[in-house]
Amino acid sequence: YISNEKFADKYIQSALQSGKGPLLIQRGLLAKGITGELWLNAWSKHETEELPACEMALDKWLSHKINKHKLDIKMRIKAQRFLLSRGFHSYIIHESLAKLIENCYS
User: Fold this and answer.
1) pTM, whole model, 2 decimals?
2) For residues 87 and 24, is the Cβ–Cβ distance under 8 A?
3) Cα four-point dihedral sign 19, 24, 25, 28
4) Model confidence over 67-93: pLDDT tens digits?
5) What residues contact 87, with CB distance under 8 A and at least 6 apart?
């Protein structure tokens, strides 16, 4: 048998690697019966991985776009909506988009 702590840890690790954010991960764990303190303890080990996971999801999303180097306001809003739907925190999304814009225009 696997403990709930190990299960939560592996679940979070796998979900982050597949481009999911903490809000979506928490919802998935809740459906599996992992709640409250167990979630907080498990997530605290992975908090620093949210930004790289968000950047990876954004890069993957952009790779499917025809004009991926044109980050006009319309494209930024679509990217933000996509990342919100993937369960990332808005401040992380803002940071990811700011880095991307900085890299595109520098």
Assistant:
1) 0.88
2) yes
3) negative
4) 656 778 888 899 999 999 999 999 999
5) 20, 21, 22, 23, 24, 25, 26, 27
